[in-house]
Design brief:
Number of strands: 8
Largest sheet: 8 strands, mixed
Strand content: 25-35%
Order of helices and strands: EEEEEHEHEEH
Distance between the termini: 39 Å
Strand order of the largest sheet: 5-4-3-2-1-8-6-7
Length: about 150
């Protein structure tokens, strides 16, 4: 099983995707890094228009790929701009926490203005490689072809 994690912190402007603690993609203050075994390698990312094909085949394959992932843990810290809404949400979440059975999903309401999401998923090696070959590589080829033709 490949353990994957996604982390997003809005105020610190950090986005992180990691695959089994070996390979990860980190966006930190609009700088893109690839980390291999903990070593940061700057990734030259030129801003240009990205063509994403909207064929039904890609949407179906992407949806079936996402359904193969198993949730290991999800943590979220949420803060609203209005303190009254924060208080109402905090009261609702404390009432829900008393009857919650599944402890894999944790949602906290804070009053500090920090929004954060951390999720960990598992996917089998076979499913990952099968979808890499049948979905992602043709998708990348189609994206490159569309970019060369001017976005169609």
């Amino acid at each position: 099983m490949i353990q994957s994690s996604i982390s997003l912190a809005k105020k610190e402007r950090i986005f992180f995707i990691g695959f089994s603690k070996f390979l990860s993609l980190l966006v930190d203050n609009e700088k893109v890094y690839i980390r291999i075994m903990g070593i940061k390698i700057p990734f030259p990312f030129k801003r240009r228009r990205i063509y994403i094909p909207k064929k039904l085949v890609y949407i179906k394959k992407g949806y079936s790929f996402l359904r193969k992932w198993k949730v290991k843990e999800i943590e979220a810290d949420i803060s609203f701009s209005d303190p009254m809404i924060n208080g109402i949400a905090y009261g609702m979440m404390s009432a829900i926490d008393t009857i919650k059975i599944d402890q894999r999903v944790k949602v906290n309401i804070n009053f500090f203005g920090k929004n954060r999401l951390k999720a960990e998923f598992l996917i089998s090696n076979w499913e990952f490689m099968k979808n890499l070959i049948s979905f992602f590589i043709p998708l990348l080829i189609e994206m490159r072809r569309g970019h060369r033709k001017g976005g169609r």
